[in-house]
Amino acid sequence: MYILEGNIGAGKSTFLKMLAHALPSISISLEPINNWQKQVYGQSLLTNFYQNPNRWAYTLETFAMMSRVQEHIQEQKNTGCIIFERSVYSGHYCFAQNSNENGFMSELEWELYTHWFHFLIPGRCMAPQGFIFLQVDPQIAYERIRKRNRHAEKNLSLAYLKQIDKKHELFLLEKKNILHELIDVPVLILNCNEEFETDTVQFKNHVEQVQQFLSQTQRFKPAAPSQQPHQFA
Predict the structure, then answer these.
(1) What's the DSSP call for residue 127?
(2) Which pLDDT tens digit goes with each residue over 174-197?
(3) Mind telling me the catalytic residues?
(4) Which of 12, 18, 27, 16 is nearest to 134 (CA)?
(5) Of 107, 162, 164, 174, which residue is most buried, by most CB within 10 angstroms?
């Protein structure tokens, strides 16, 4: 099991779809973004969050975590080579933590969220064999977001993308304050500033790097999930 990570606008869904076509032996699992972007329970949680993050951060992040944990537990039983788009880990270390640091969650909401994270993930979610990080400059990601013009993303700012980019670096490159079982998980970094969707040479280079990474990490055995019971303060 592998996980593809990257900022908003990095091209994750497009990359995975193209990769699955180039490498038929792998399976992909796209981010269940429709769960929170479309009309769920009569509302788009993602749109609500971008419009009023102080009101909706806790609701969105808790719902996203629940969706990702369910998918992770189900798919980790898969014995083939499967690549997820995003994960419960980036949901926590990149998006939820960023919301907390920006004051979008109250102290109680953050305590409740982290309690559920440490209850649901350690001991239940198996660490991946590797992370594939689509690294892109926030300015380029911002321009791509403006170009694709999704309704839910119309209020996204460049400042927010810079914050999320930094969180990905702390999580995947510096590996600061993360679960013990994730520390030794290999990370493949792909520079995606160039438009790989239309540049066949660039995409072929990415595919070759992914193939080599998968080959090198097939024998990697992730550390056993840690048991870290979380107590309320």
Answers:
(1) P
(2) 998 999 999 999 999 999 999 999
(3) 85
(4) 12
(5) 164
Tokens of 110: 């953050």
Each domain of the chain, given as residue ranges in start order, spans 2-217
Full strand arrangement of the beta sheet holding 27-29: 27-29, 82-85, 2-6, 130-135, 187-191
CATH no. of 2-217: 3.40.50.300
Q: Please report which confidence band the pLDDT of residue 231 belongs to, taking 50, 70 and 90 as the band edges.
A: very low
Joined tokens for residue 175: 């590996």
pLDDT in tens, 8-32: 999 999 999 999 999 999 999 887 6
The Cα 161–Cα 176 span in angstroms is 20
Q: Which residues have a Cβ under 8 Å from the Cβ of 200 and sit 6 or more positions away? A: none
Residue 43 pLDDT > 70, yes or no?
A: no
- In whole angstroms, how large is the CA radius of gyration of the chain? 17
- The conformation of residue 83, written as its DSSP 8-state character, comes to E
